[in-house]
Write a structure and sequence with these properties.
single chain, pyruvate-formate lyase- activating enzyme, 8-stranded mixed sheet, two-stranded antiparallel sheet, 12 helices, 10 strands, 44% helix, 15% strand, globular, binds iron/sulfur cluster
Length: 299
């Protein structure tokens, strides 16, 4: 079973093709080592087929499935497609998704992405995190806005839906405007089907889970990154929604770490979402502070 999956896949079959994250360098992350999977490894096709056979006995009518872990395409194009085809033969699937690093998709190239679509992959969850080049480089994400935009065109051509994850607070207090402006630019230019918002979570010894702390703490101690305030992340959300075009994109704050949970389609629901944020920001300061403290941070 994958250790981490998107909230939207909570009812999906969870099939693990790889373990952990091969990249494992993003400063804001380090989550797999923290949760006890410090090394990356690839499972064999036979192992995964065995899992699928077992799942077939448990939930033969499942209609959605998700491949883990962080970047299951690292198993290789041929094994990935073989497993995807086998899975689709076993279940009446309407949706097959996985996490995918933009750099892995870029390395695979356009033709391979079409091959993935033919094998039955029809949505990818991509950690955009930020559309600002400087922010991405600082956090060692291993992708650039240009790379993400190129890959998005290939995915759209292949008919694979895009679900981007954006991390509020990733620019810190000093670069939050650039972070949001760059992110809005990439979203406007790529028009993904989904944008899911998260807030930077800086876990450490107090996370209650144990394991290594978030690598970004080193930068915070050194003074090279100043974390955004809770209210600052709400203002980032407000600025992002204001900066986006009237896209058919579905926006969701579908994680409990978010201070304000807005959900809706940009084109139809932007006004309502912005009104919710404004309604929150005009509450008395003590009420807002109490809310931030109550939400806290958790995985
Ligand atoms: S954010 Fe994704 S790619 Fe980066 S280290 Fe974490 S799991 Fe790996």
């Amino acid at each position: 079973m994958p250790v981490i999956r998107p909230p939207s896949e909570w009812r999906s079959l969870l099939v693990r093709l790889t373990r952990g994250c091969r990249w494992n360098r993003c400063r804001f992350c380090g989550i797999y080592p923290h949760l006890g999977t410090p090394a990356f490894s690839v499972r064999t096709v036979d192992e995964v087929r065995h899992d699928i056979d077992l799942l077939g006995q448990l939930r033969p009518k499942a209609e959605t499935a998700f491949f883990g872990d962080a970047d299951p395409l690292e198993i290789g194009l041929a094994p990935f497609c073989e497993i995807a085809v086998y899975l689709r033969r076993t279940f009446p699937l309407k949706r097959l998704t996985c996490y995918a690093r933009a750099s892995t998709l870029s390395r695979l190239g356009q033709e391979s992405i079409s091959t993935l679509a033919r094998a039955g992959l029809n949505r990818v969850h991509i950690g955009l995190e930020s559309g600002d080049d400087r922010t991405l480089r600082f956090h060692r994400k291993g992708q650039s806005p240009a790379m993400v935009k190129k890959v998005a065109v290939w995915l759209k051509d292949a008919g694979i839906e895009i679900s981007f994850y954006v991390l509020l607070g990733l620019g810190g207090r000093d670069h939050w405007q650039e972070h949001i402006a760059g992110t809005a630019r990439v979203i406007n230019e790529t028009a993904p089907e989904f944008v899911r918002l998260r807030r930077l979570w800086l876990y450490g010894e107090d996370s209650g889970i144990g394991g290594a702390e978030c690598p970004l703490w080193r930068e915070i101690r050194a003074g090279t990154f100043v974390p955004q305030s809770p209210e600052g992340t709400v203002r980032e959300l407000q600025l992002l929604l204001t900066s986006l075009d009237d896209l058919p994109t579905f926006i969701a704050c579908d994680h409990e770490n978010n201070y304000v949970h807005v959900v809706g389609r940009l084109k139809e629901d932007r006004k309502v979402m912005l009104a919710e944020i404004e309604g929150f920001l005009v509450r008395p300061v003590a009420q807002r502070e109490a809310h931030y403290a109550a939400v806290g941070s958790r995985i």
